[in-house]
Design goal:
31% strand, 6-stranded mixed sheet, alpha/beta, single chain
């Protein structure tokens, strides 16, 4: 099984500075207790691993319960099936960014990046989309109606979306059909569009993707 490294000591001062956090304390070297200013108490397991899978979630939660398993590295992934397994076991899986946003939510469990969540919701309402299947924290497969080919989408966010941003997106999500820039004010550079063409993917805005979904 892939090794999991706990980053509790590293993570503690980061979350302690959050405006919604009243105090933090160590439960163990693998768990952190967070008390919010509204009195809500959470236990967080901050981890480092390349890809968080369901078996890793089970192993983490066998050690001790956790309100949230926090995947720290920006380049790492949690499989959506890992998040679903955590939910079944009374926990949740979030990226570090999601944890920081969720601290202001009434229920921090279940929080998903707003860019990803809104994209999933909008695409799920498309007349040609039968189902949206999440792959990882920021990619999804659109199952289309009428036997049309499925489309796998990586959700990114940028203002001037350049070639470097595209390369990073494809490195994190190899095999996608579309790299989506979810920023409504964003624009793709000519170099990024040229790279996308050579890589055999499409770099699109949400409005462009909504139109492309209609095509076989």
């Amino acid at each position: 099984m892939t090794e999991v490294q706990y980053l509790t000591n590293w993570f503690t001062p980061k979350i302690s500075d959050h405006d919604a956090v009243y105090s933090t304390s160590s439960i163990s070297d693998r768990r952190l207790r967070v008390i919010r200013r509204d009195g809500v108490q959470l236990s967080i397991a901050p981890i480092r691993t390349e890809t968080l899978t369901p078996p890793l979630v089970e192993a983490i939660l066998r050690e001790d319960e956790a309100t949230i398993i926090c995947l720290v590295p920006k380049t790492a992934h949690y499989l959506w099936s890992a998040r679903e397994r955590a939910n079944e076991l009374g926990s949740d899986v979030q990226t570090m960014s999601e944890v920081f946003w969720s601290m202001a939510e009434d229920d921090p469990q279940g929080f998903l990046s707003k860019d990803v969540d809104s994209t999933r919701r909008i695409l799920g309402q498309h007349s040609r989309v039968q189902q949206v299947q999440m792959v990882c924290e920021s990619s999804m497969t659109l199952i289309r109606k009428g036997g049309m080919a499925s489309v796998t989408v990586s959700v990114e966010y940028g203002y001037e979306f350049g070639e470097e941003s595209l390369v990073k997106a494809l490195g994190r999500h190899p095999g996608v059909d579309v790299v989506l820039n979810s920023n409504p004010s964003g624009r793709a550079t000519s170099a990024a569009l040229e790279h996308a063409e050579h890589a055999g993917v499409r770099l699109l805005s949400l409005a462009e993707l909504m139109g492309v979904i209609n095509n076989p």
